[in-house]
Structure formats: C-alpha cells, structure tokens
Specification:
With 237 residues, the chain is of the alpha+beta class. The chain has a 5-stranded antiparallel sheet, sandwiched between helices.
Length: 237
C-alpha cells in the first residue's frame, strides 16, 4: 500500500500522454489491492473529453458495458459520489441490466468490484474501478485501501491536467513565436520586391491566404522556402 501511494505521487511528472499515465495509475492499483485482477480509470471533464483507461482488456470491456447501459458501479460511483463494493456482480440487484451482461462474458466475467470516486474540491472528476474474477474478493479493508488510493490518485490526476495544460500552452506559444518570425521574414521578402511598407506586404500575404484558403503562416512559410531556394540556386551558379 505504501509503495502504491508513493508510486502514484510520481505519476503526474512521468513522460508521455495523460492516457499512459492514467493506465499506470490503474496498474499501481492492481498491485496495491490484494486479489485484484484488473483496474481502470474513468476521467470526466478537466477540459478534455471523457478518458477511459484500463490495466487489462477485460476491464475496458466491463467498463464499456457500463457506459453503454448508463448503469453499473462505476456509473453510480460518479453520479452519487459514493464508493461501491460488490462480491457477486452477476447477481447484484442494484444494477440488473449490467449484471445480466457482465455475467455472460465467459473467461472475462467479473464477480467482485470496487468503484471509488475521484474527488477534487467541490466535484467528482471520475472514478477508480477495481475488478476480480472470483467472488467476494474485496473486504471492508480493501474498500478503505481503495479509497485511500483514490484520494491520492485524484490529486495526481488533477496535477497531470495542470501539467498537460501548461505544456500545451508552452507549445502553442512556441508555435506562435515561430509563425511570427516566419511572417516577418515573408513581409521583408515582399517589401524587397515591391518597395512597399510592412502593412501593404502583410495585406498581400492575407490576400493570398484568403484566395488559397490557407493560413497566413503557411503562406509565409511557403514564400520563405521559395526565396531560400532561389537564393541557393543563384549561389550555385
């Protein structure tokens, strides 16, 4: 358990897409909770569409059934902001349609589950779902352990989103700065040809952009590449 909590604290800073880091949260949960065969994370909102990740294919199948039916422990955990434990899912009367489907999955049948809300202040951002193939695997201690993991995981997920948003902002800024530099170069090229001012040169770029249905930055880049090509050709002569 301590190792799992420690590992979760490092997830936000791990490299790679947020889906990969959420999958690592699921894997850590499986290792931390005795008897678990698989786990999944459902993430809602946070400036992104719903994200569903799983530590194993059967988890994704079970969770997909829940979302298709809008019924199941995971759905209830998010909507009710409560933890749910089941020791015999195929016969659980709280979710009859889901129970009927999950009991007919053959080798992928899940009989025990924990579904735990991921909470940030004032809202539920998703759920942590833990599954086992055998019946009555998870005890009250397992539930409390899962809730402790979910509390840390929620903070980790929130931090992941903040970090990803910052990285996207930096990338957008770098792209904007690069585009601005290219546009300035293109304006200089046009002015050297026409003798006009910077506003006239930019109007020329914008006219081409509208005519060709391309972004101004793309038109400017093409113009700079063409000018560089002609300069290299003259130099080789």
């Amino acid at each position: 358990m301590r190792a799992g909590l420690r590992a979760l604290s490092f997830c936000p800073a791990a490299p790679g897409p947020i889906e990969d880091r959420l999958t690592e949260v699921a894997r850590i949960t499986v290792q931390a909770i005795h008897g678990a065969d698989g786990a999944g994370v459902t993430l809602l909102g946070l400036r992104r569409p719903s994200v569903i990740v799983a530590s194993a294919p059967f988890v994704r199948e079970v969770d997909s059934i829940q979302y298709q039916l809008a019924e199941g422990p995971c759905v209830s955990s998010v909507s009710d902001d409560l933890s749910f434990r089941s020791g015999s899912l195929p016969g659980d009367r709280r979710w009859p349609r889901f129970a009927a489907r999950v009991g007919n999955l053959g080798l992928n049948t899940v009989r025990s589950s924990l579904s735990l809300p991921l909470r940030l202040p004032g809202r539920v951002i998703g759920s942590l779902n833990v599954y086992a193939h055998a019946e009555h695997v998870f005890s009250e201690d397992s539930l409390r352990m899962g809730e402790d993991l979910a509390a840390v995981a929620a903070v980790a997920v929130g931090n992941m989103d903040v970090l990803d948003q910052a990285q996207r902002s930096v990338s957008q800024l770098e792209s904007a700065l690069t585009s601005r530099g290219t546009i300035d170069q293109a304006i200089g090229i046009i002015r050297s040809r026409t003798g006009g001012g910077p506003e006239e040169a930019f109007d020329s770029l914008r006219t081409i952009s509208q005519r060709e249905n391309r972004k101004v930055a793309e038109v400017a880049e093409h113009l700079v590449i063409q000018a560089a090509g002609r300069a290299r050709a003259r130099h080789s002569e």
